Amino acid sequence: MKLTLPPRISPQQFDSALQSFASVVGKDWVMSSDADRDAYSDVYAPGSTDQWPAAAAVAPANVDEVRAIVRLANEHKTPLWPVARGKNLGYGAAAPRMAGSVVLDLGRMNKILELDPKLAYTVVEPGVGFFDLHDEIARQNAALWMSVPGNGWGSVLGNALEHGIGYTPYGLHARNLCGLEVVLPEGDLLRTGMGAMANNPAWHLFPMNYGPTWDLAFSQSNLGIVTKAGVWLQPAPETSLSLTWDIPNEEDIAWVIDTVAPLKIAGLIDQNVFIPSWLGKIVVLGQRKDFWDKPSAMPEWRVKELLKEHKLGYWRVEIRLYGDEAVNKAKAEVIKSAFKRHLDAAPFESWWRQGDPKPPMDLAMGTPTAVPLQMSDWVGGRGAHMGFSPVVPATSEHVMGQLKRSRKIIGDHDVDFYASFTIGGRFANNVNMLMYDRDNATQVDNIKHLFNALIDDTAKAGYGEYRTHLGWMDRVMDTFNYNDNALRRFDERIKDALDPNGIIAPGKQGVWPAAYRGQKKEGAQ
Amino acid sequence: MTRAVRFGALALFAAATAAVAVSAAPPAGPPAGPGGVPELPPYQVRAQMPAGDRLATGRDGKAVFEHVCGYCHLAGGMASNLLTKQMMMMHRPPSDGLLSNRTDLFPAYVKAVVRNGKGAMPAQTRVDITDAELNSVAAYLAKGKK
User: Fold this and answer.
1) Global pTM?
2) A59 and B34 in contact by Cβ < 8 A?
């Protein structure tokens, strides 16, 4: 990828910025070749990767180097785009929102600083991946379980800071963060919570500040760079029981939601309950062409045939219980009788007990895997995916409304429908996976139109997304329009106060610093 | 890395997959352990990253491969599943789905794929794997070929 300079920076100025970075990290950790820029581009970009080009990347080894680079970036007016491991696949990967930003790759900062089985938490740097933490827990034989997202390749902190979701009782990953160390936009260093007092041992245990609490202000945020944080982990349970039902029909999701959500809110179910539709089970069995060989979306009759052929329901519900055997048994009885009111079939039951090996592919047991990414092979070619993920109240009325709305829009664009709902308590998170071949221009164009239609129509109905790809960050921020977009106005006032040069992640989540507000139109879809 | 290398690799890949269009068998599950419950497959119990300077030559290619590439390329990993399928479509032994079993990999090819990406695999940055580490991994996978 050719060099795109940051706004208002000459090639000479950029060169001297890179040289100053090299004086901090060493020249090998300043990466600015065409191949480097390619490697930091959005691997799943809808369309050309040139829409969100990084100018270079720099990789510090520790917090002092981060602070030094941030100060130099201010001096040289060179904006930074911090990434933890850069695996935010489907949302932009490592690529920056604003063209010409320098990726600050924290992947070398990959130390697991503490792992405490007694109080069940860890303290990690941003470069620690889910697999790394999993390996370390196994090596120490610590009685702790993680919560992992579908793609276990990414960073524990990066995923939590981006509001990633897993399928265990610790599945709202941002909620597990406790006590952050943050490099501020002018290079100062802040510790939140009890960490604001030097050497306070409760830093990663008590989740609030004395005074205003800032931890989550640094999530989906451009107010600072998180260099380490506490993450709460789940104590390994004595036993775990999973109950699995195949739910026959599409409209059954209504009673499923009205059955599961109250149990979740009441605490009978601890985990985030993931309810994928049938395509989630088929994608790992082969490619789209093995099941439907036409470019048009798979029609309803073919879906019905496939469900029959593979003995699948339209939805699958797997509820996993964690804890002592007697407690799990009692909970299971309550849950089974709630399902029995709507479905005669008994669930498939599977017990796990301490000492048993864990099933490797069960995300609800917190074992990381990248295998769900196999779905990118579904459409063939250089497969890619984007997720449209609005949040709706966890009642049948709202869920069915959203299901019908997104299904119609996706059908109108002739794209396969692959929905899932994750019940996280009082809300359901509806992820619609849109898969496409990056090298098929017609498909890419269609997906972009589809994505805009989904955002706009869903917002008209009153719902918003919880996370989105770089190209839609502004469009989604625009949908949060209460009181003349008070949220963005507030975010940008804080941004300008803390980051007068607009150095950290300009445009992140649609929040633009004054210095670069003119760039907003570029790269927006 | 030139564009030509990338398109070359892609063309080869496309030709190979287009040659035989049969529906592939589902990826095999992991082997059963005690009590019939599958054991964690190798990709979930990786080697540790070898200690030492990541920029120095002579890194342990096998250990780096298993640590850095292992998430996907050890047995049971996503890439091994996809490659096994592709190998079978080409009437090659399914065991060739594991890169460590392959005898037809050359260092330049390994490096091109790692730096440019291929199919579902994204390009790897020099933080993911340094040039020195990639040289060692390429030598390990090429089994002495130059």
Assistant:
1) 0.91
2) no
